[in-house]
Amino acid sequence: MHVKICGLSTLEAAQTAIDSGADYLGFIFAESKRKVTPIKAREIIRNLKGNVKKVGVFVNESVEEISRIAEYAGLDIIQLHGTESQEIASQLSLPVIKAITIHSIEDLIQVQEWKTEYILLDLPKNQTAPIKKTLNWEEMKGKIPYSKHIFLAGGLSPENIETAVKLIQPYAVDVSSGVETEGTKDLAKIKAFIREAQCKEEELI
């Protein structure tokens, strides 16, 4: 199971993710409490030890600005998390993860509509209803078009990753707030999440 730890802002948390077996590290350049500057991301990335893909998360940014930040910071993959078009994605020289917001099962049709290397399935933002703390994995089971590498996000944590992996069997799982304590990346939770994700995949083989 591939694992992406997103919303990183410190070298310690990023290195812990690598040492624990993460495959992707996410750095957010859009407005967010986890936003990092290109300078900070570059500093972290340059000091990392280990082989891992660095993902830059952008929301409705111009191709020129995305490309500038990607080159400066040393990114490997671009994640588009807004209302970007396929035309924007096609103009980027790096592989693209396109985030799709899943309001209902019908939204899964968008997976086939995008010509990007990866698709990320996520919850609607600012969702407070308890039923929407995670995606409806039971309903989604067997209904995701697997023509793409699917990243599963949306409310994942060390406590529920087992269920998510068993039902969806995605290419990768993506977590941010689920490995935090009071808004800060929790090193123990990062380790636990990666361990649980990888152990559950082994059980499926």
The number of helical runs is 8
Distance between the termini: 11 Å
The whole-number mean of residue pLDDT values reads 93
Q: Which fold does the CATH topology refer to?
A: TIM Barrel
CATH architectural type: Alpha-Beta Barrel
What's the assembly state of these chains? single chain
CATH first level: which class? Alpha Beta
Radius of gyration: 16 Å
Coarse morphology: globular
Biggest β-sheet description: 8 strands, parallel, barrel
Tell me the strand order in the biggest sheet: 1-2-3-4-5-6-7-8
Q: What percentage of the residues does DSSP assign to strands (E)? A: 15-25%
Please provide the ordered H/E string of secondary-structure elements.
Answer: EHEHEHEHEHEHEHEEEH
Uncertain spans:
127-131
Q: Please estimate the helix content.
A: 25-40%
**Class by alpha and beta content:** alpha/beta
Instruction: State the fourth-level CATH superfamily.
Output: Aldolase class I
Strand segment count: 10
Query: How many domains make up the 3D coordinates?
Result: 1
